[in-house]
Automatic annotation (TrEMBL):
<feature type="transmembrane region" description="Helical">
    <location>
        <begin position="134"/>
        <end position="156"/>
    </location>
</feature>
<feature type="transmembrane region" description="Helical">
    <location>
        <begin position="168"/>
        <end position="192"/>
    </location>
</feature>
<feature type="transmembrane region" description="Helical">
    <location>
        <begin position="85"/>
        <end position="114"/>
    </location>
</feature>
<keyword id="KW-0813">Transport</keyword>
<dbReference type="InterPro" id="IPR047218">
    <property type="entry name" value="YocR/YhdH-like"/>
</dbReference>
<keyword id="KW-1133">Transmembrane helix</keyword>
<feature type="transmembrane region" description="Helical">
    <location>
        <begin position="420"/>
        <end position="439"/>
    </location>
</feature>
<dbReference type="InterPro" id="IPR000175">
    <property type="entry name" value="Na/ntran_symport"/>
</dbReference>
<keyword id="KW-0812">Transmembrane</keyword>
<feature type="transmembrane region" description="Helical">
    <location>
        <begin position="339"/>
        <end position="361"/>
    </location>
</feature>
<dbReference type="Pfam" id="PF00209">
    <property type="entry name" value="SNF"/>
</dbReference>
<dbReference type="InterPro" id="IPR037272">
    <property type="entry name" value="SNS_sf"/>
</dbReference>
<feature type="transmembrane region" description="Helical">
    <location>
        <begin position="212"/>
        <end position="236"/>
    </location>
</feature>
<keyword id="KW-0472">Membrane</keyword>
<feature type="transmembrane region" description="Helical">
    <location>
        <begin position="12"/>
        <end position="30"/>
    </location>
</feature>
<feature type="transmembrane region" description="Helical">
    <location>
        <begin position="248"/>
        <end position="274"/>
    </location>
</feature>
<protein>
    <submittedName>
        <fullName>Sodium-dependent transporter</fullName>
    </submittedName>
</protein>
Amino acid sequence: MKQREQWTSKIGFILSAAGSAIGLGAIWKFPYMTGMNGGSVFLILFILCTFLIGLPILLAEFVIGRRGQHDAVTSLKILSPTGKWHWIGWLGLASSFILLSFYSVVGGWILSYLARAITFGLNRSDYGEMFNSIIANPVEVLIAQAVFMILTVWIVQGGIKGGIERASSYMMPLLFIFFIILSVRSVTLEGAMEGIRFLFVPDWSYLTGKTFLLALGQAFFSLSVGVTAMMTYASYLSKEEKLGQSAFNVSVLNIIISILAGIVIFPAVFALGQSPSEGPGLIFVVLPAIFNEIPFGAFFIIIFFILMLFATLTSAIAMLEIVVSTGIRNHYEGRKRMAILSGLLIFIVGIPSALSFGILSEMKMPGGTFFDFADILTSRFGMPIGALLISLFAGHMLTTADTEDELRMNPALHKTWRFIVRYLAPAAIILIFIASFMGM
């Protein structure tokens, strides 16, 4: 029987964990949320919430994962053999399964854009019409979704060292390089400084309770906590690594990427007279139009969608790893078979989401289309409930001796962390949960 794998290096773990967090949340959602909520004020609140709430919950997942040294379900059973806390692991698995089923659809859209950019270019007058035609084409969306899932399965079946860590070690540095290239191009556009001011000079009139809650939600979801992805990754971590330092590094990388996304997008938006509050269509509709107007725009749009693909893949492999690690338990020789089977099932479950904007557009579910319903199930229910339970478990079920042994940090910092995960973080999650249903 094969032995359980471990990360070969600290940097490999950090890059993989950061890759899980740095996905569409940082590159797609953060820019349009920032654009719709005042720019700099939203950024400031996002950074504060990341360190005060997101980081402690991320650290809680790290503690549970490394303490258990197994998949999330088994780890929680080991740490609480007489309780029902292992259902957190099953909730994380279900959330990851559903999340990847529609996340892979978006990954397919990115592949469609990238294929067009490389082959024919994206030079046209109406990008909104192009986007709508892509997502409504049943053959294209299903093929693109399938290709994206094949890429994800191919990486995960290779294991921790040969698959996930190797892929992340290439994709994450390239992601940073591409972001820096695009940032330089964006800030050198005429009129770009208006976008820089929007991102970094606060307009305090946007400092409201609603903006705070939205920033808290963005910080929480952008770190990929609540679906046991970080718990699963930490289970492959050796006892020698410092969890606090690793969690801090992942949080900082997530913030840096989010800021770089803002530097790429907002100077270009303002330089070409577009609105920063375009919403979710900002990168699929507005950004291609912007690149179309600048010198060498065809080259830079290819780089941008390669960057998007890398970010989306690093998150997708974390979601699939949750399903695979739970499925194989201690039978590591079955990884390849489980990765293929899981990927196939996730693809099948994702078919209604892929067709939600075409032949199934008239099929209404609670919250809208099937795609919207899957998003709501995970973002409004699965992830917040999972993070709440993880925080409560780490704060109340793990003893002080357990967490001290795992964290090995300054006693004052340890007490602060335990207070946050026991009281402050659960209160914040409940607040987000309530606010989302009040339409704030």
